[in-house]
TrEMBL record:
Domain HTH tetR-type residue range list: 18-78
Lineage, top ranks: Bacteria, Pseudomonadati, Pseudomonadota, Alphaproteobacteria, Hyphomicrobiales
Database matches in PROSITE patterns: HTH_TETR_2
Protein name (record): Bacterial regulatory proteins, tetR family
Listed InterPro entries: Homeodomain-like_sf, HTH-type_TetR-like_transc_reg, HTH_TetR, MT1864/Rv1816-like_C, Tet_transcr_reg_TetR-rel_C_sf
Keywords for the protein's UniProt record, in alphabetical order: DNA-binding, Transcription, Transcription regulation
DNA-binding region boundaries: 41-60
Molecular function terms, GO-annotated: DNA-binding transcription factor activity; transcription cis-regulatory region binding
Any Pfam family: TetR_N
Source organism: Roseibium aggregatum
Length: 206
């Protein structure tokens, strides 16, 4: 090929099929797994994705944009894990409550880097449509599942946060291996056992 031929070859066109965005989010998730949220950067993600350091600018204005996209994926997988358990659950309200708790734990154990990231207090763009849809859906699943179990005259959020606190605390303790701390002095119960105790404290919806 001559120099003239080189000059007439058009520059590579930027892909517009979403593959660049996906590659950058994939790279971000990998960095979270390897280094934690403090080491996340657009330049590092670009390098890991095998693209130029300027490439992220086509999709993300700054690190908050990339973080939001990663969190959006996390919430989508979170919803998927709870809904898969719900789909396989008997229709009884108490069984459905147990199902979303198990789905919560499935997500935490299957995607620990995303579990820690979406609840890390990182700054996300809450106006981002994809993020907002999945984040809102995650809480809606909790709210819809708890609704039949709310005692009359009780603020629904009290029961919702009670359930959330139980399952989130359990998942986080298990993930950080505090359950193996010999100072606990007793065996580590299964999540289902704790949920059963919680169900006994709630009214029977009939």
């Amino acid at each position: 090929m001559t120099d003239e031929d080189h000059m007439t070859v058009p520059p590579p066109r930027r892909k517009r099929d979403g593959s660049l965005r996906k590659a950058l989010v994939d790279a971000g998730v990998a960095l979270l797994r390897e280094r934690g949220p403090d080491k996340l950067s657009l330049r590092e993600c670009a390098a890991k994705a095998g693209v130029s350091h300027a490439a992220p600018g086509y999709h993300f204005k700054n690190i908050t944009g990339l973080s939001t996209a990663i969190a959006g994926r996390g919430f989508a997988l979170f919803c998927q894990a709870m809904e898969q358990r719900l789909d396989a659950s008997p229709p009884a309200a108490t069984e459905r409550l147990s199902a979303i708790c198990q789905g919560y734990l499935d997500f935490a154990t299957g995607h620990p880097e995303l579990f820690l990231f979406i609840f890390s207090g990182q700054k996300f763009n809450e106006d981002d449509e994809e993020f907002a849809v999945h984040a809102s859906r995650a809480y809606a699943i909790l709210r819809e599942t708890c609704a039949p179990l709310i005692p009359e005259g009780t603020n629904p959020e009290e029961i919702e946060i009670l359930v959330w606190s139980l399952v989130h605390g359990y998942a986080h303790l298990a993930m950080t291996r505090k359950k193996e701390n010999p100072g606990l002095g007793r065996g580590w119960p299964e999540l289902g056992t704790l949920v059963t105790h919680l169900q006994k404290a709630l009214p029977d919806p009939g």
